Amino acid sequence: MNNTLRNTLRLGAAATAALGLGAAALWAGLYDVGADAPHTRPVYALLDYARERSVAVRARELSVPALDDAERIRQGAGNYEAMCAGCHLAPGRGPTELSRGLYPAPPNLSRHSVDPAQAFWTIRHGIKASGMPAWGASMDEAHLWNLVAFVRRMPRMDAAEYRDWVERSDGHSHGGGETAGAGSGHAGPGHAYPAHAHSEQAHSEQADARRGDSASADPAGHAAMTHPAAKPRRPATAASPQAAPAAPPPPSPSDTAAASAHGHDGHGGHGGNPAHPPKPAPARSGPTPSTQPPSDVETTPADHEAHSHRH
């Protein structure tokens, strides 16, 4: 066995052992992937080099347009403020809660110049496992290049000039797909995440409020729903149970005179003689009772009330 073969076997055995140890370490979860636990220097150097080469190779195929146009810079300013400033900061601003929590730490683009082609590729495609989104999913090339134009200009701005560009911009606007915060966890003025209440209590309170608003907005309609109107009823007749009894007719003048003479017939005292009681008044003819059968109409509260007033 010559030396070359022995060396090859030794290298193969060492590689196999290293792979075995690496696999065992991965299976055991020995490597901490938490963002607050930095990579070891060899791992960081390897990943950083891989990122730089990957972006550089792919970006060299791009054709960079003119980026000094003021309209490009103005339009890109609003999108940078809404989608990028929370991580990559801005002139006159210190680190944010978001930028401090990311690892690897995002570069402060207000202080570092960028290569336009590499910046475009990175903004469009993002970077795996870094917190850098692929904005090409919601932005077309024109708006991406506008963003690059602003980023290229920003290191030469002070805080006042930065605010002026943002105020003159169209805000978070890139032709569709805009969302509050744009998925970056931050937003400029007017782009804060809306609050969402998902608890059962919140849903119940909202439903109660809607029902209360409906009832207060249309009390007549609410009453009509809970107390439907009664159907029309036929007027009650004399023989109907709802008809009030007819009042007796007033006495005639002849009856009054006869009663007065009987009370003063010489037997003394007003009020008449008990032995000669007053002659009953002759019966007067009244209306003939109706032969119509009793009505089957239900008595309503209004009928009862009218009947009680007549009595």
UniProtKB/TrEMBL annotation:
Keywords: Heme, Iron, Metal-binding
Biased composition (Low complexity): 235-245
Residues covered by region (Disordered): 168-311
Domain of life: Bacteria
GO molecular function: electron transfer activity; heme binding; metal ion binding
Extent of Polar residues compositional bias: 287-298
Basic and acidic residues: compositionally biased ranges: 197-213, 301-311
The keyword Iron is annotated on this UniProt entry: yes
KW Coiled coil (keyword) present: no
InterPro entries: Cyt_c-like_dom, Cyt_c-like_dom_sf
Gly residues bias locations: 176-188
Domain Cytochrome c, chain residue ranges per copy: 71-155
Protein's recorded name: Cytochrome c
Species per Swiss-Prot/TrEMBL record: Lysobacter firmicutimachus
